[in-house]
Amino acid sequence: GEEDGDEREATPLWQSAVLFALAVLVIQGQVFFVSCAINLGLRHLILPKGIAYEKEFQPDYQQPNPVAYVPILEDNYLTSGQLLHKLEDARGLLVQDGSYFDVWLKLSLPYSSTNENLFQVQVDLLALNSTTVFTARRACLMRRQNSLLRHAKLVAFAPLYVLGLLKDGEETLYFPVVSKFRQGSITGVGDTKVSQLRVSLLPQRGRDPPEVYGAAAHVLVKLSYLQHFLYHYPVTSFVTLSCGLAVGLNVLLLGIIVAIVLAFLFGGPALEQDDGDGEGAS
Amino acid sequence: GEEDGDEREATPLWQSAVLFALAVLVIQGQVFFVSCAINLGLRHLILPKGIAYEKEFQPDYQQPNPVAYVPILEDNYLTSGQLLHKLEDARGLLVQDGSYFDVWLKLSLPYSSTNENLFQVQVDLLALNSTTVFTARRACLMRRQNSLLRHAKLVAFAPLYVLGLLKDGEETLYFPVVSKFRQGSITGVGDTKVSQLRVSLLPQRGRDPPEVYGAAAHVLVKLSYLQHFLYHYPVTSFVTLSCGLAVGLNVLLLGIIVAIVLAFLFGGPALEQDDGDGEGAS
Amino acid sequence: GEEDGDEREATPLWQSAVLFALAVLVIQGQVFFVSCAINLGLRHLILPKGIAYEKEFQPDYQQPNPVAYVPILEDNYLTSGQLLHKLEDARGLLVQDGSYFDVWLKLSLPYSSTNENLFQVQVDLLALNSTTVFTARRACLMRRQNSLLRHAKLVAFAPLYVLGLLKDGEETLYFPVVSKFRQGSITGVGDTKVSQLRVSLLPQRGRDPPEVYGAAAHVLVKLSYLQHFLYHYPVTSFVTLSCGLAVGLNVLLLGIIVAIVLAFLFGGPALEQDDGDGEGAS
Questions:
Q1: How far apart are CA B253 and CA A267, in angstroms?
Q2: pTM of the full predicted structure?
Q3: Which residues 128-157 of B have a C-beta within 8 angstroms of C?
Q4: In what order do the strands lie in the sheet with C67-71?
Q5: ipTM score of the complex?
Q6: Distance of residue B190 Cα from the nearest chain A Cα, in angstroms
Q7: B105 burial via Cβ count (<10 Å: 0-12, 13-18, 19+)
Q8: Quick one: DSSP state of residue A60?
Q9: pLDDT digit string (tens) for C139-196?
């Protein structure tokens, strides 16, 4: 319909413009949905089930230092997330022997006076017989909030805060504690298959332990750089990949259109000239 | 199209001006990209892998003074960044015997009341057998924040702060602690190959230790003055080098254009004169 | 083009004025650059390497009073700026026997409550065998800041402060402590070659030691009055010398122009008279 309009002289310019803009919007919308769909499919291929486990845990504040045990076992060996009896063999372990794995922690904390102080998180990797195989500590410190900045954010994103989609006065810390640990790798020690994490929250001497809204441990098996990027930066990677796919699809579409136009330009007149020049050739 | 327009007298001046400005913009954009590309290539050549190592570390606040051990070894001798057993020989050391190296520290600290006080950082260089080979101390003091200046900054860069691209209330200290230390160089002492750093944060007597968001040690092997400038001042050096390269490329382009114009001026009339003077020569 | 315009009577006055102003600007710009270049050359001649040494030092705040040891030795006798073993002989000393030297200190301090109090700096000159040869004390007191003046400054230079080019809340003290001390000069004592400075920051009784951003000792060998002025007042002396040189160059240029004009005035009519008087002379 658009090409017919260009040929007829009576059609006003704005009609063509509106039709053109509409066509572009429709095509770009379809391109966007297709690229998002491809993106989701790629994520499932690149990040298959069985390489990343998210385990929520509840630190026990009755202990001197809040501590939580996080079994890294399949669910059917656990009772409501707890390991009630000792394991005899290595069946049910989420991380296979010889695999490398990372441990990341995610903590949600309120901006309270006890949380203003620096605290430490200690992760112990426990073997099947509950002995500690490896220990790593990390210091955690919440960002100081500037009240001017905080209120500017509240005003800027007011609707989201009112609807409860954004939370005020909470910070989520997400950080690696163990990286590239090899299951059963310690030399000179016997059976060191890691079956549990023990996560302790250590305040500084004479201070109260930090208060958390929620906590989770992420156990990640053999992540490549691409998997690492897709897993730990989900929003950034999704936007990047979708934009890249949309651009790629547009380039593909433009190439097809250019090829068709070129075929018309070179093929069309040539046929007409063939008709004019010599009819014996056809 | 530009040259045709100059020849026809009817072309208005502003069209030529627009075309000229466009051509200049396009050429300068290309010059800019080429100079950035050359810049990146030069950086890779001048700062090769193997002269600079950045090692993040986590001070342990459960000690009387927060302390961290930073192995300067290749990653495959470490378990999740830690050295679990003593080394017997000097394999895997990042700094070869007889090489000179510097140690710089980078600390990110919040503007909190405990950090207002001056504190010291002590770096001990530990030999293979964990004895201390060399000790250096440095005093650290955060800048006092003027609240007027701070809020002026917040208002000036408000969108960046709201989106979380700039962090408020944080200062990053970056300073040298050890400079030009020769691996295995202490005279009168036996085997002094440095395999670990011990970094301690020392508060003044009776004060709380400083709180850090993050900390990293930079171990730099044999930096020349140019490498030193490129490594420690990345933004300044990148801008300087790119501008210099862009100016150089422009001078080169102008020289080529002048040479072509000169060739036309001296070659063109000469050919015409040749045509006029004697046609037997051609 | 200028001379052609002067000869034709039709050229308007403002064109001549613009051309004249342009010529003056170009000539003065060249005079300025030449005088700066001569200034830098003179500085290198007047302040040669080997008469002034700047040694940064780090007071150790773990001591009851912060103290730092500053070796005045060549760098190849030091390990990362520290003297690790005692010297046996006087080789490597920066100050030769019989030379006179001064010691100036430069301290950068924040306007904090501990720094509001007066404190003292003590410099001990230590001989090769670490005995104290000479001791000098100086009282230091930071200027009280007037908050109105401070904020006026902040507002006046706001862009420089926001971009981090100017630092707020810092004062730099620069003062002499030892002046015209003769190397090895104490009568009645044996070998007294000074090889180290010990710099102590002494607070008043029962007060906290002052906090410093940075500190440096300047050791200056045999400065004449001109060298003294050039070294201790670099900005003032540079501006003064450059202005003086620019004035001198202008006087020189004017003299040359006057000489040429005079030569024309007296030589030109003389030639014309020669033409009129007797043509046989030429």
A1: 42
A2: 0.78
A3: 134, 136-139, 141, 143-144, 146, 148-149, 152-153, 156
A4: C67-71, C194-203, C119-127, C132-140
A5: 0.75
A6: 29
A7: buried
A8: B
A9: 999 988 788 888 888 888 888 887 777 777 888 899 999 988 888 766 656 667 888 9
